[in-house]
Amino acid sequence: MKTKVFLKTVALSAVILFGGIAASAANKNNLIYNSEEKDGVMVGQTVYKMDGGTLANYMKHSYKYDNQKRMTESETMKWNSGKNAWENDLRVCYAYQGKTLTTTYYKWNNKQKAYVLVPEMTVTMDNPNL
């Protein structure tokens, strides 16, 4: 039971973190969310923006889990309408060790064509549910 509550908290935190800007702008930008679930967990979410009378791609989130259904990675991509393609933006990795959770952030670097660690955003915290 405690693990389920913790997993829900982590998943909700990730959605709030990645969708924070989108969520705060939802009333202004008419955002539409399409979630994808597999085996009872959300594995992806595509966010569309209402553009006139049509929906336009906006953001895409994908999530990975371990065998205990704990989120281990989330990735955010943004739509580039000029290139008509999804582009990498942010990756967050979650590492569980005992009663601690470490959240590590990586930002996409176009020049390096790779995710680059953002050390000032890395957070380690105790899990009160364990």
Report on the architecture of this protein.
This protein has 130 residues and is α+β, with helices and mostly antiparallel strands. It has a single domain (31-126), classed as Lipocalin (Beta Barrel), CATH 2.40.128. 21% of the residues lie in helices and 55% in strands. It has two helices and eight strands; from the N terminus they run ααββββββββ. It has helices spanning 2-24, 26-29; strands at 31-38, 41-51, 54-65, 71-80, 85-97, 100-109, 114-117, 123-126. Strands 1, 2, 3, 4, 5, 6, 7 and 8 form an eight-stranded antiparallel sheet that branches. A hairpin with a 2-residue loop joins strand 2 (41-51) and strand 3 (54-65). The longest helix has 23 residues, at 2-24. It is globular and about 50 Å long. The termini are close together.
Outline:
Pfam families: DUF3836. The protein has 2 helices and 8 strands; from the N terminus they run H-H-E-E-E-E-E-E-E-E.
Low-confidence stretches: 5-9, 20-27
The appropriate CATH architecture is Beta Barrel
**Into how many domains do the coordinates divide?**
1
How would you describe the shape? globular
- Counting DSSP H or I runs of 4 or more residues, the number of helices is 2
Summarize the biggest pleated sheet. 8 strands, antiparallel
CATH class: Mainly Beta
Number of strands: 8
Rounded Rg: 16 Å
H/E series? HHEEEEEEEE
Q: How much β-strand is present in the residues?
A: over 45%
Structural class category: alpha+beta
Averaged pLDDT: 83
Helix content bin = 10-25%
